[in-house]
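Risk register update: the risk that structure generation would not scale has been downgraded. Supporting records follow, first protein first.
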Amino acid sequence: MTGKKRVELTDAGALVYSKRYKENNESIGAMFRRVCEFVAQAEKEEEREEWAEKFYEIMSDLRFLANSPTYFNAGKEKGCLSACFALVVSDSMESILEVNRLSGVIQQAGGGVGYGLSQVRPVGSLIKSTHGKACGPVALLHYYNSLAQLITQGGRRAGAQMGILSIDHPDIDAFISVKNKDPEALSTFNISVALTDRFMESYVNEDEYAQAKLKKIAKSAWTTGDPGCFFIDTAEKYNTTPQLGQLEATNPCGESPLLHAESCNLSSINLKKYVKENEEELFDWERLKEDIHTIIRFLDNVITVNKYPDKVIEEAVLKTRKIGLGIMGWADSLALLNIHYDTDTAVELAQTLMSFIEDEAFNASNALAKERGTCPAFKEASGPKLRNATRTCIAPTGSISILAGCSSGIEPHYDLEYTRTMIDRGIPVEMKILEPILKDLEEKNSTFRPKTAYEIDPIWHIRHQAAFQEHTDLAVSKTINLPEETTVERIEEIFVEMWKAGLKGGTVFRKNCRESSPLQTNKESTRTYRKRSLPHERRGIVHAFKVEDQKGYVTVGFYEDDTPGEIFINLAKEGSTVSGLYDALAILTSLGLQYGVPLNSIVRKLSGMRFEPYGMTGNPEIPKVTSVVDYIYRYLGLKAKNNIPDLPSGMFCPDCNSRLINSEGCLHCEEVTCGYSRC
């Protein structure tokens, strides 16, 4: 492959690339070439270089980008290229554990997981086979959250999960409010309630039960941003493979309603690249058409060359070959065309544009079916042959839109200048973002200034989402950002308007409803914090510990009210580098405590970190740990009497996260295909 075109990134794009994607000094151009060459392996041998060049040409021009795992993993040994998966939990212990196993291998490969929990019996129900009582779906949220936290440590992506429960489930009240008191307790989860048409019709007809339940949902969404709404009957109405099952789950951001064990491979077109200024046509339709056909081929190739994390998933994916071509840069395109987001003109253009993309994606999949055959799920279907059961899907495009230098998905600009928090290998990193559209408008001497999210009435958010949803096979990821003064009643009305508009789902986020919003305007990010001083004489505890052969001491100093305010860590027989790192960890923890960071938040983030030495401790309260850090912070949680759930600990395979078993004097991974061992 000869593609050498230089990739032009914005400053923010270059930072995201270096922090999140770059590995082994690989340039972004080299990363794109690696991906395109690998994906072209699905082509006939004599055509591979030609198609790799075509893929690279539009990717290096940032006209489209694939979902992030494609860049992380293409061409690597465990090269899963899919971003999102769905798993349905049946009402049995076997299913609960099997879903846990599948979720583990998915997340280790960099994928997000959505769970359908509606089949699980309510908490306290009798289990006839054991005469015990069921844990219920809410307990499973904590169970799967612990798994994600373990895998996130040291990973390139923060764990991302979605839990969905039917409005008709007996445990729905506990589910709705599960994140109200401590959203960080389920830090990897979004949650949504599956609302049926029958329920929504009852609400509209002033049924007291339905109105009370929707108000409860709205109150929790007002408090934390969760839950969202999944309009399950609307999603099922457009299920392209109903013979294979019902759609009970979605991926973490809600844009992909999927069957059990399915994944969807996503990519997004940067619409800003197709705007035709000073001409009669608003977009370069011919170029867009050609690129759509190339990208659909790219995504179908991804299905073929993908290295799936499990055979169960591989079988489900190959049966339907679902792909999702979406868009980004919509708000930028409107700005370049001098069209405000909250206008009929913008909504009508959205319908025209997405109808065009839908038609060409359909035509491209039809052409591939003639060339390569239909997907197995459509073998017996009448009508036009299709290679892919779905073709279009609009994702949120958080990181890839920054790489591409454009606005995210179909969202309006959050602000024209803001701070974005990105997770870099488990560590929050703040970035100051200046929307690239400002430079674009300046270069064309335009005085147009786009309206931002909080300046736009929610009804326009809904109308845009509905316009795009009408021409999208899967769903549309969309968040309505609301001013802080928004009432619970208004959120309740918004959910009803979403359903009436024919959306498959939606979420709201009220400004400042949580401390840790991923986006903040520059004004919001200038908060001041006061340090709480420790008394000169204070109570302290010195605790000796041992993790396998590593001995050490942790010292905790307390305020007058017995809350911890400082820690010191000393490890026996360690060199200056390791000791210095633990000193730095103790100092940062102490500063966090003194500036008001809740200890339980620190403990939840640092408990479960996994590296050597790990294993037995001799402390009956914390018998096994995954590292020295895991021990120290779980101990702090115990001393502070925080109600912190016991994290799964012990010995796990560093390669695949399966359990390690002791055999013949060595530790072996129980997953035979992994092959990890340590003696």
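Supporting record for the second protein:
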Amino acid sequence: MGVIKRVLYRGDILTRPRHRNLFLDMEENIHIHYRDLRIELSRNEFEDFVRTFTVQSRELTEIIDEQNYRDGKFANANQNDVRIWTESRLRSEVKYHPTRLSIEECGDGYHIHYRNCKFLVDPEDFHRIAALLKSVDLDAPYAETHADVLELLEANEVDFVIDEGNAPPEKLAIKVAKYHLPKVRELFNYIKFAPDDSPSPMAYQGSQLRVEMRSESKWSSADYRRMRGLNEVVRIADHLARHQGNIDPNEINRIKCQMLDLYGRLEHAGSTGIETDVQKWLYDPRNMQVIFPFSQQRDTQKTDLSKLYREWNILLNSYGMSFIKPGKTSFDSQTQKRIQQKIQDSTNRLAAAFSAVTKIHIMGSAARSMMGIYEVPFIHGKLAKLGSDVDLLVEIDPKRESDIPRHWKLYNPKASNHCAIYHLGQIPLAGTTQNWKEQFPNVTFLDHLLDAYVYLPSSGNRQHIDAFLHRFSARCIYERNENSVHYFGEQEQRLADKLTNLFGFNKPRVEPLNVSTENGIFLVVANGTDYILKLFKVSGNYRTQRLPEHVRYEQQLIEQLRARGISTPAVVRAGSAADMTFDGNPLLLFERQRGMIWKRPEYPTERIAKVLAELHAVQMKSPLPLPTDFTFDELCMIWLPQFAAYADAGSDMPEVSGALRSLEPRCEPFHNGEFRGPLYATSPFVHCHGDVAPKNVIIDDDGCAHLFDFNNAYYGPRITDVLDGAFEFSLAEKYIHLADFKRFDRFIESYHAANPLNDPERNDLARWIDLTGIIKFTKELKAGLEANRVHPENLRIKRAVAIANFLNHRTNIA
């Protein structure tokens, strides 16, 4: 870059470039088109260009990779700069219009021809340029004053700082980076400042100003750039307002990325002392850095993240900046082919492997083989995308709308085309990019996001969908038929082979169900029938080594309950000699009970309690001829010592520590088996379900309730099963914010109405509540302490504390 003698005009007044193309064509001569520029070349000139560019670009690319060059790191600093002169001398002269200047008004705007180059200028921009040229004063004096010289130094991007001795308006004292001294000397020579003979500091004298400068070699170009940026800091709200409609797409996404990084930091750390009022945030445009000041108020409370995010989005939306894509570099043809195969494989695994899916269409960049990497992360809402999305439209079987795969993450329940939008998963980034994670460690970056518009026939419009597919030139990449069976993974493929051998199925579909259990649960579709496959990996109310024994007990219990008229999904039997294990884990195949699971309050408590009452009543009338090897007392001997261990160890969490201290006196008597024995005698013994929770109850289309999943079944006092249900329906499973222990007594009374509790059970209800509550508290605490993130906000910790609070409020220590 040459030395700027005088800035005749500088300002961001133009519209964005109209074109984003680089291409060649050949008409009366050869053209290189780059955005709004066209260069006309003869054949000899073109061959010159190709030869020189090929050699120099290869050489420069190697240096870029070797030095890990980043844009702007040494901008105009003449430090660590690189110039490639290899074969730089062109062999041919300019052939077409070497002396021409032509300005033309055309159908697509104004054309400015300068020698063999043509610039396309929008009419609006051209009128601005013409007006500016009229106002330019070519005879205006060069910089003379203190302010003018400072402005000229900054226009030349000289690395300098104000030095001691600076005394405007008569004297300008500066420290200049050593590598810029030649440039500064040349500059002062151009603007007619005479050098002074004094050796130190160097000095130049103008008509109105003396300039003294010293050499500085300690700071880097990046240091100077940061220091210059501090002089240009503005409120970010003002910056966005000033550049409304004309902000650089890469810049706004970099700004959003910094905000998302702050959001992630606050999400993990809570209060950090940072100012969270978006109107007080600052911005350094030169370095594209958002500055989050420290708050004047030392607020130790957790930041309201939803409010912060809402205010930030209001600011962006007010300037039309909520959805702006950054620049993108498309992959080469070979990479496009590789990623197309990955798209097909991922689509088969994440979508086509599920029986609810009938068709899959691909759209957008993936359909056009225009996948690529963004120049900066594309921030869309709270999503930070490194590469192009893979856009799909997935059609769902109208009979299986309730079977949408649970691992799909709902992003938007209703888009403009009346489809729901789900995130299906990711495809690894096909190319290399900057290590954005180092710059923004609190942001979760996405590679190629597999996005799906999901068409549900019950709520969609077929004509709208067909028009949508046509508008985006979508193509179908999957249509379900008997032979198009795909699997989510290798495990599902092997399970399908196993089921074929056990039950004689023909190409069964095996689909993982994303449910809250460590056991493997799968939907199996075979021979036109739905089944549920359960792969037992963990035990419930018993030791892990007894898992195979309990599975046999569970199967026998279900079969005998069904024989007594209790409606629960049947176990599908294989041959007597069949190996009912997979990778060493027992398995059972169940008939599928259609219906819905009532996930959150308010629950149909009366119907559910009545089903439990019937399950107990048939046994009280006529005991089941089953072994009684799994007992409630064995359960007590597992969980009561575990509670004692937690109480002895204490906890760093005040809520947990307080709960343990308050429950310890209640638990103490139950450690003695002689104390438990008389209590057991008050309640009839039955084979209990063991996990009476909303997740284990299906409500069918007729409104009837069906209990299933006897993985925690045991033989013991029926009152423990009743109270287990009372606790679970009060806690509302994962909806802990909807917990309400008014449902506790309601559940007991609903059960009592169908199968009355006896007087001893009711008289000893307080002790039964203590015993079952302490066991349930201990189970929840164990699950919470074994979670990846142990903190008071953990769901299982919250449930444990809620149980303790209820016990302390409900009963007094005997």
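The chain has six domains: 22-135, 146-230, 234-318, 328-479, 490-591, 605-810. On this basis the risk owner (M.S.) recommends closing the item.
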